[in-house]
Structures are given as C-alpha cells and as structure tokens.
Amino acid sequence: MSGQLTADDLRAAVEDISRRSAELSSAAASLAARAETDLGHDVAEIVKDLRAAARQLGVTRLLLEPAGVDLAA
Fold this sequence. Notes:
mainly alpha
C-alpha cells in the first residue's frame, strides 16, 4: 500500500465500519433479548422458590401453633 489513502480507500473503510457497526448492533440486541429472557426465567424461578418457602413456613406455623397454646397454658 502506498503512503496515501484514496477516496475509494476511505469510502471502503467507512462502508466496512458501517457494516460492522450494524452487525455489532444486531448482536447486542440479540444478546440483550436473550439476557432479558434468561433474567425473566431466573426471576420466575426465584419467585417460585419463595412461594414454596412461604408455603412451608405456613405449614410449620400451623404445626407449631398447638405447641404455643400448650406452652401458654
């Protein structure tokens, strides 16, 4: 390559940068959508686990209430 860039070289470089930028934008959007889906799934699993723990605590409370009444008597 000679020391000077031509207008065509610059045009090709700008086109290449634009194309790569569009590819990166598309990849970033895809990753963001996947991350949002994965995060939504993770949050749903956490909520499910918290609900199960709350049910278990409710059952435990029901089982321990008679003992509390016995201790109070």
